[in-house]
Amino acid sequence: MKAPMRAVCFAIAALAIALLGGWLLFGRGGVPIQTDLLAMLPRTERHPLAEIAVERLTHANGDRMVLLVEHADDATAKAAARTLGAALAHDPAFSSVTAELPPFDLNQILAPYLAHRFSLLSDADRAALTAPGYDPAQALARRLNEPFLAGIGTKLQDDPFGWLQHWLDQQPWSRSPLTPEDDLLTAHRDERTYVMVTAALNGSSYDDTVQHQALDALNRAERTMRHDHPGTHLLRAGAVFHAAAARAGAERDVHVVGLISSLGIALLLLWVFRSPGPLLLAFLSTAIGIAVAITATLLVFGQMHLLTLVFGAALLGEAVDYSIQYLCARANAGPAWQPNTGLRQVRPALSLALGTSLLGYALLGLLPFSALRQMACFAMAGMSAAYLSVFWLLPALLQKPAKPLSPRLVSWARALQVIGARLGAGKRGAFAFALLSLAALPGWWMLSHDDDIHLLISPPAHLAAQEIRIRDVTGLGNSTQFYLVQGDSAEQTLQREEALEARLQTLTEQGRLQGWIGVAGMLPSAQRQQANQAALAPWFAQRARMQTWLADAGFRAPVVTAYLDAWPGTSLTLEQWLAMPISTPFRYLWMGHSKHGYASLVLPQGQDDVALLRTAAEGLAGVELVDKPASVSALFGRYRQYASLWLLAAMVLIVPLFAWRYGLRMAPRVLAPPVLGIGLTLAMLGYLGQPLTLFHWMALMLVLGIGANYAVFLQEGEPHAAHRPGAAYAGVLLSAVTALLSFGLLALSSMPALRHFGLTLLLGIGFTALLVPMSLIVREKNT
């Protein structure tokens, strides 16, 4: 097929792919950008049920805002909360809003428990009832003299000894600092009043449209609240705020990386080629690569992660390399330019460059992180399309000769090349290598590592601070660790949970744990309920004495008879507890039955000491502490350790490619600049106090591929630009600067992982580009 026809076919195919990508991106009801940072994490738990539990906890309240209205004046805080709740309730962005509590009858909350009152005892009451010397008359007297209860309190005639009341006092809703005041959930702390308002979103927190509608509605409501009630402060928590912040950060990064790098590359190409034509063609080739990359990623994964989106903006600097090398070949050819001859000239260099790049990204795609696999897919598709555009599109558009490269750039490149050549020649080369190694040694010695998951997922400081304050004031929320309790039956699961909670209670009494939330604390096992009844049975067997105690305390005969006739009552079952309205906020803790058996969750409160929490579960059958951040961090650590081996393997795999082209003796010399660049980059990271992470090592993998490209470009281009010394190296420097303008800007990203990528690539590409002339001199000397 002739070049013009081939170019037309390629252009039609590229346009079709771009249209498909546009439809996948914008034509299906919203941009499919994944803002759920947890969605990119791999499955790390040993048991699949633990992964289900992690997802269950993550999304239990994921589509809900928790808002806390704060003011020094009690009445103002409550009025402001009512104003905020009313404003949000009228907005369609929310499916429900809770500010003022609906009217409720306390008896309706307590009534379901009365039939089971003799099966529900606190640990203290059960121990006291079975201890020698227990006197029910004294318990009755203490009950009659108890102060008025502000929370959920039982009536004296229903619970004269206070046994049910003591059990209710240990329930999560009784321990919460939030109490109903004036039909509002209110807490008091540091002479300030806090009122809670909750709002359920009308959709997913990770839906772009839902985010915008909900946040706009909240901003309007907050402005109204502040206007009507000056001095009011609003604290907020919820997945929607993190998702929106992550999206905003990614969009900002795309603008910074994409726009600044595009502008910088455009000005650079205009200066170098001294014509707008090469600029437009270079960006056309890159645009095709980006369009193909987006389409391929959406076809394979169905969506794009934030990391992929920002990384895609940075890929501009590498994808433009292929067209730059072809444009440089055209500029160096002068009046003798022939498109097909230029293709034959650059084909070996571009093919080797593509091979090394694909190898680096393929290794990146082996990692079990969806975002990194997306980045690998994006890069491999985009680089391949940019490569093909040089061979199938540009020749038809570059028929005429062009102006030579900027003389100033060529002269600068020539000067740097001469310096590099002298430093790399003969004994000076050995001395330079020894000197560089000596300078790098302290940096290598200072290297450390850090595998913390927060280097990948780092919430904005202001959101994290607000969530900590909300948790401190309200007692809501839990740490990132939880216990997974499993059993062959619901009864066995509850019994195992009770064994765990006994240890957690000990830690709580020692002040080492704030508390916990678990199903067994609200629904004792049948075995525990039978033990509770057994503790009460000896006293109810003495009916006459019980009647005397109650009558002497002032209870009327019908009340005494009704209370004693209620013995022994019935045990509280799982089905009954799940049907109670008061269990609604806690039902997610009961995972029920699956092919893995029965399971429940226990959430420790106020403690992040994993060693302490793990000790509490030691030796307990069916109890496992699940710590998702720690498990992901451990996975990062394992793969970081593997990464150095992968980097070495990549070097070994590249050697046959280079040996095929340059010979076995020459291949290591051509590889020397990127390898030295990696070594110097590691040293510089040590000097900068940058702990090595998995992302530093992945970036070093790309440094190897990109640096090898520069060595190839110089080796292949120098013979064809001998009439203009420095012109070939000028093309290499041009490629390096475009890469620095894109990848280097990732060092400014709001995402820690991308910052590590960017800084490593900035250093690695810079060092390698400066060291590349040493390989050319070695080659000339040995040939």
Automatic annotation (TrEMBL):
User: Can you say what this protein is called?
Assistant: Membrane transport protein MMPL domain-containing protein
Q: Which UniProt keywords apply?
A: Membrane, Transmembrane, Transmembrane helix
TM ranges are: 254-273, 280-301, 307-328, 349-372, 378-398, 429-447, 643-663, 670-688, 694-714, 726-751, 757-778
Q: Does the keyword Flavoprotein apply?
A: no
Superkingdom of the organism of origin: Bacteria
List the InterPro entries hit by this protein, alphabetically. Answer: Mycobact_MmpL
Cellular component per GO? plasma membrane
Organism field: Dyella tabacisoli
